[in-house]
Amino acid sequence: MQLLEAKSGATTKDYPYSGKLIVLTGPSGVGKGTLMRSLLARHPDLYYSVSATTRLPRPGEIDGKHYYFMDRGKFEQSVARGEFLEWAEFAGNYYGTPCEPVIKQIQRGKSVVLEIELEGARQVRASFPSAHSIFILPPSLTELEQRIRGRGQDPEDAIARRLHRAQEEMNAAAEFDVQIVNDDFETALNSIEATLFS
Ligand code: 5GP
């Protein structure tokens, strides 16, 4: 049984949980969203935590499925009420993990996957030292830029901010339990499974 230890008590109780908390981090555009979706498809027992964000929905994104889209005022209220397990500002928008569903699932024995950026991952690691933290790296920064541009969904200033942040995030990869390079998709997915289930 996996024990999750919490440092501060607001969101957790003093008894062992049975689910794992899995944190997937890596620079924007590295493909961690696709890896995570494949992981969930192959392991339907995993629970994906839907984040809140103040970013506008991209074409095809559905409120409550991809994110809970909200304005800054509502997000800040949730922060003030302590409703996030972690939250951070990224490329001009807020992102946060609603606390309650995560704790509930872990208490039920489900393993929960968070797909979040570096600052949030650091907060989670501080609150839950036993979380499994995985960092996904691109084969190179050039390749990452091509992937972000190829996505064609972000304005130029957002791309520049994401690339700058990507370099900062990659510098922190060694903080994580495991580092996996997403060069060949299937190999990367198998490596994630190997660290989680073996
Ligand atoms: P995007 O705007 O491309 O969907 O996400 C931008 C970044 O925010 C990605 O690195 C993604 O992993 C991260 N992110 C998504 N949800 C959360 C969250 O709840 N908390 C934090 N800290 N980062 C998040």
TrEMBL record:
Catalytic activity: GMP + ATP = GDP + ADP
Protein name listed in UniProt: Guanylate kinase
Sites where the protein binds ATP: G26, P27, S28, G29, V30, G31, K32, G33
Protein family membership: Belongs to the guanylate kinase family.
A single MF term (Gene Ontology): ATP binding
Listed HAMAP family: Guanylate_kinase
Database matches in InterPro entries: GK/Ca_channel_bsu, Guanylate_kin-like_dom, Guanylate_kinase, Guanylate_kinase_CS, P-loop_NTPase
Domain Guanylate kinase-like positions: 19-197
